[in-house]
Amino acid sequence: MSEDDVPEPMDVSEPDGSTVVADPTDPALAPASRETVGWRRLVATRPRRLLLVAVAVVAFVAVGSLAIGVLRGEPSVWTAPTETFDLDGPETIGAGDAWNLVVDRPVTDATLTVTGPTGSTTVELAGTFDDVTVDGYPTEQSGHLTAIVRTADGVGTASVTIEPGEAVDGITPLAGPRSMTADREHWTMVTAFARDRFGNAVTDGTIVEVIARHPDGSVESIEAPVQHLLAAVRVFSETLAGRTTLRVDVDGATGDEVEVLEVPGPPISVDLLEPTMPLRADGRQLVEIRSDVLVDQFGNELLDGTVGVVQLFGPSGRGTLRTVTIDGRAEFVVEAPSTPGSLSLELTVDGVRSDSLVLNFGADVTALPVEVDRTGDAVMLTIGPVLTELGGFVPDGTIARILGVDHELELDVVIADGMGVALLDPVPDDLVAVDVSVLGARERVEIP
Fold first, then answer.
1. Span 280-363: which CATH code?
2. How far is the first Cα of the chain from the last one, in angstroms, to the nearest whole number?
3. Is the pLDDT confidence value at 77 over 60?
4. Strand locations in 135-265, DSSP E?
5. Distance between CA atoms of 122 and 379, rounded to whole angstroms?
6. 55 backbone dihedrals φ, ψ, rounded to 5°
7. Is domain 365-446 in CATH 2.40.50, yes or no?
8. Rounded distance between C-alpha atoms, residue 297 and residue 363, angstroms
9. By the 8 A CB rule, do 368 and 349 touch?
10. Quick check: 439 and 393 in contact, CB under 8 A?
11. What does the pLDDT look like over 23-36, one tens digit per residue?
């Protein structure tokens, strides 16, 4: 190897961080040994590089967190306030009033955070100042309000209670039930929700006056304090049926009127009047029945539309119908039976039942002639003319029923122009007589 090929001395880093000068001609530094030296250098420098990377990451995270906090308006964790200062102000204010706070020393460049019933808001206060005013929307809602003033080196806090203002117009009473019996025993509940100009419920203990004008013209005033946002009173009825008008007054503030009905109570009695028309068992006549005027214990007529139930007991069986009152009376009609007999009626209104009204229906047919003609094995029955009490024909369509005496024969004949015809062809050998009946009138004839 020539002199030009002799390598220059080289620096070798030891694991402890020190540096030594190595002789490249040292046999110990053979090519393989020089590679070993390079590996030692790499191993020696890796811990130092890892330490630098870790420091850089920590610094980046810290700076990033600080920057995010600044963008959000949060106080720097690195510059926490070192002292507090006082914010002096009133303990209570009215809704909508300005909240004036005095700082015990001048402060510079601060943030003001106000927290109350409606949420929280933060504003920047630039320059130097020694007082703060909070007004507008945050002070309009009743409740508890807190203010926090932060500077670079200090913080101050204060709180205030916002009380509701006076009641304003627009108080509408709520009444229920909307009807009550006029007997001085039944009542309706009236509630009122009084608010100030910002919609806050007035302070508990505020007196609410409920004014009621009854159907008899009397006016009464009932007072009640507000409790848990509401005032509630009972308004009792008087004895005259009609409309009661209600309104609310709170220190001169009022609102719309509402109405409640005072209605009659149950009738003291139910009486049915006898009909004036003649009662004939013709199966067609409609008999009008009406009650006496129905009044309660104080003389109030029952309201139109009050429902009554009628029970009927007669020759045809038992029945039920409904009726309603008009002008204090219950009115209904019943159909005359097709056979003579008695019809009993009972009317019940609001749980009060009338005495039974008995209607006696007499026979309407006064003449029922029947002729029998036999020709061979056939027999013809001619019925009529069938006459009513007034002397006219029974209505067309009236049924004449023919029943065999001690025989199963049964036959219906339709009367037209007072006459009806039945043909028995052939006539049964064992039929000796028949009964012919029209509207309760009966005639028996022999079969020749």
1. 2.60.40.1930
2. 175
3. no
4. 143-150, 154-163, 174-176, 179-181, 187-192, 207-213, 219-225, 231-236, 242-249, 258-263
5. 116
6. -60, -40
7. no
8. 43
9. no
10. no
11. 545 444 444 433 33
The span from the CA of 277 to the CA of 281, in Å, is 13
Cβ atoms 343, 334 nearer than 8 A: yes
Distance, C-alpha 54 to centroid of its chain: 67
3-state secondary structure of 135: coil
Give residue-wise pLDDT tens across range 95-151. Answer: 999 999 999 999 999 999 999 998 999 999 999 999 999 999 999 999 999 999 999
Tokens 């409790």 belong to which residue? 227
Q: Which two tokens stand for residue 138?
A: 């945050």
At 61, phi and psi to the nearest 5?
-65, -40
Helix, coil or strand: residue 41: helix
Residue listed under structure tokens 């932060």: 150
Copy the structure tokens of residue 44: 């020696």
Flag whether pLDDT at 52 surpasses 60.
no
Contact 331, 364 (CB under 8 A): no
Listed in sequence order, the residues at least 6 apart from 386 whose beta carbon sits closer than 8 Å to its beta carbon are 365, 367, 368, 393, 394, 398, 400, 415, 418, 419, 420, 438, 441
Q: Measure the CA–CA gap between 159 and 188, rounded to whole angstroms.
A: 43
Nearest-angstrom CA–CA distance, 176 and 11: 103
- pLDDT of the residue at 440: 87
Q: Which CATH architecture has domain 174-263?
A: Sandwich (2.60)
Question: For residue 285, with 0-12 CB atoms within 10 Å meaning exposed, 13-18 middle and 19 or more buried, which class applies?
Answer: middle
In words, the CATH class of domain 83-163 is mainly beta
* Dihedral angle of Cα 47, 51, 53, 54, to the nearest 10 degrees: 130
Query: Residue 192 to residues 168, 176, 197: CA-CA distances in angstroms?
Result: 13, 12, 16
Domains 83-163 and 280-363 fall in the same CATH topology: yes
Q: Please give the Cα distance from 116 to 86 (Å, whole number).
A: 20
Model confidence at 45, pLDDT cuts 50, 70, 90, reads: very low
Among candidates 440, 400, 434, which has minimal Cα distance to 420?
400
Mean pLDDT, the chain, rounded, equals: 86
With beta carbons less than 8 A apart as the criterion, state whether 308 and 324 touch: yes
Residue 276 confidence class, pLDDT cut points 50, 70, 90: very high
Q: Model confidence over 390-448: pLDDT tens digits?
A: 899 999 999 999 999 999 999 999 999 999 999 999 989 899 999 999 998 999 999 98
> How many residues can be counted in the chain?
448
State residue 83's pLDDT score: 86
User: If you write DSSP's letter for every residue of 8-32 in order, what string do you get?
Assistant: PPEEEE-TTS-EEEEPTT-TTS-HH
Ordered by start, the domain boundaries in the chain are: 1-80, 83-163, 174-263, 280-363, 365-446
